[in-house]
Design brief:
Blueprint: H1 7-69, H2 75-88, E1 95-106, E2 111-123, H3 125-136, E3 144-151, E4 160-171
Keywords: Membrane, Transmembrane, Transmembrane helix
Protein name: Type II secretion system protein M
């Protein structure tokens, strides 16, 4: 069949086959490039997902212990524990406001959260970091620091104003 074609037809057929091969190579190359890009995006996102997973596991373990420990249910008792921590670190006299936010039910009423909004004036960052460490890591109180904001007043270089929200979760009494 190839012998029956005119030279001009053979040339057109070779050009058409060459173009078809080039198009196929281009499509295959784009597909491989897209797959490699997706794979590298997945690899780059993995550390962030591990951090997120660690946080979720930590929260799960925290909430699962609330079923056995009960957590903080009484606002006045919780306030007393916080004041003891503040006193131990020498910042109790620097509290400008310490107000409770009304308790809320979360997770379909299974847990209850008590939040205290505490403002300090003229405290050192070192003492506040020790307070946060005592609350979050040492578990002197069954709570977490949910919000922490530092602002620099103009008067002194080594003291700061600090606003923090401390949340205590508890398994709801059944």
């Amino acid at each position: 069949m190839w012998q029956k074609l005119e030279p001009r037809e053979r040339l057109l057929l070779l050009i058409a086959c060459g173009m078809a091969i080039i198009v196929l190579l281009f499509v295959a190359g784009r597909k491989i490039y897209k797959l490699r890009t997706d794979l590298s995006d997945t690899v780059n996102d993995t550390p962030g997902q591990l951090t997120k997973l660690d946080k979720i596991i930590g929260e799960y373990l925290y909430f699962s212990t609330l079923d056995t420990t009960g957590g903080e249910r009484d606002p006045s008792e919780f306030s007393g524990k916080l004041e003891k921590i503040f006193l131990d670190h020498g910042v109790k006299d620097r509290i400008s406001t310490m107000k409770p936010i009304p308790a809320k039910d979360i997770d379909k009423g299974k847990y209850q959260v008590l939040i205290f909004d505490v403002n300090f004036r003229g405290v050192t960052l070192e003492s506040m970091m020790k307070v946060v460490y005592d609350i979050d890591k040492n578990k002197r109180v069954n709570a977490k620091v949910e919000f922490f904001q530092v602002s620099k007043p103009y008067q002194d270089r080594s003291t700061y104003d600090v606003n923090m929200k401390i949340a205590a979760y508890s398994g709801k009494a059944r």
